């Protein structure tokens, strides 16, 4: 599909680039919009996946199409899925040392020589901390409140956004690129097909967390509702 078509893979990838690099200002102000490191992280990416699924479904004639999720939080799926080894899901801007049977590092900072069994244990311990023990309050899991018209910097990512979200982006990205592009950089992450199944799993973890979290504050209930409001859905059509 040509890049001139708004449904094309490259145009959809550029939408993520625009909203995660402060390319837009809030209406009637010079305050920027950024959908990372705030409570926008989960709902905005859910919205992007919603439209991506709709586009793919319409192109293949399947109204019930749904993205698979790469559940790297499960020991059996802690390697790069095999379908990313070949076209059309292959991306040459990846770290080739991450190919199977390499076990992913959900808390990746730098390469290590940890044995696979120990790495799996560390991954599971991290997941419990990020989703359960360290995320007992909404602001810990969702990220800092970010409201229209407020100045200053909202730089408070939630537990899962810090790791394994950010860390897996870096783990997959190319070790030959300065910011570990494609997956390792905001502007290029959505150029890699792995972005979508990675974020589908992030979205699933949001549902897992919602399942055992008792929300009492109105604003957190609204953000965690099942609805995509009309105003939210308009964002991706700008």
Blueprint of the fold:
Layout: H1 9-20, H2 41-60, H3 116-133, H4 138-142, H5 159-172, H6 194-211, H7 218-223, H8 230-234
Helix pairs in contact: 2-6, 3-5, 5-6
Structure notes:
This is Tyrosinase copper-binding domain-containing protein. There is one protein chain. With 238 residues, this protein is an all-alpha fold. The protein contains 8 helices and no strands. Helix 3 packs antiparallel against helix 5 and helix 5 packs antiparallel against helix 6. The C terminus is likely disordered.
List keywords for this structure.
disordered C terminus, mainly alpha, di-copper center containing domain from catechol oxidase, 238 residues, 41% helix
In the predicted model, the low-confidence regions spanning at least 5 consecutive residues are 227-238
Q: Name the structural class.
A: mainly alpha
| Count of distinct strands | 0
Count the DSSP helices: 8
**N- and C-termini, Cα separation:** 20 Å
């Amino acid at each position: 599909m040509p890049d001139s078509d708004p449904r094309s893979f490259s145009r959809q990838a550029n939408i993520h680039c625009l909203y995660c690099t402060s390319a837009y200002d809030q209406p009637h102000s010079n305050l920027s919009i950024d959908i990372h490191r705030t409570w926008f992280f989960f709902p905005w990416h859910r919205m992007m996946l919603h439209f991506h699924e709709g586009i793919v479904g319409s192109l293949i004639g399947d109204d019930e199409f749904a993205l698979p999720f790469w559940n790297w939080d499960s020991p059996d799926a802690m390697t790069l899925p095999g379908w990313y080894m070949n076209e059309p899901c292959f991306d040459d801007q990846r770290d080739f040392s991450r190919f199977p049977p390499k076990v992913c590092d959900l808390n990746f900072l730098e390469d290590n020589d940890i044995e696979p069994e120990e790495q799996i244990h560390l991954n599971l311990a991290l997941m419990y901390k990020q989703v359960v023990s360290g995320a007992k309050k909404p602001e810990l899991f969702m990220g800092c409140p970010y409201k229209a018209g407020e100045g200053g910097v909202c730089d408070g990512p939630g537990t899962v956004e810090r790791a394994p979200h950010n860390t897996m982006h870096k783990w997959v990205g190319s070790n030959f690129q300065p910011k570990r592009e494609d997956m390792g950089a905001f502007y290029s992450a959505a150029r890699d097909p792995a972005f979508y199944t990675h974020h589908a799993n992030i979205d699933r973890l949001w549902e897992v967390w919602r399942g055992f979290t008792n929300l009492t504050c109105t604003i957190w209930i609204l953000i965690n509702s099942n609805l995509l409001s009309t105003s939210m859905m308009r964002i991706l059509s700008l």
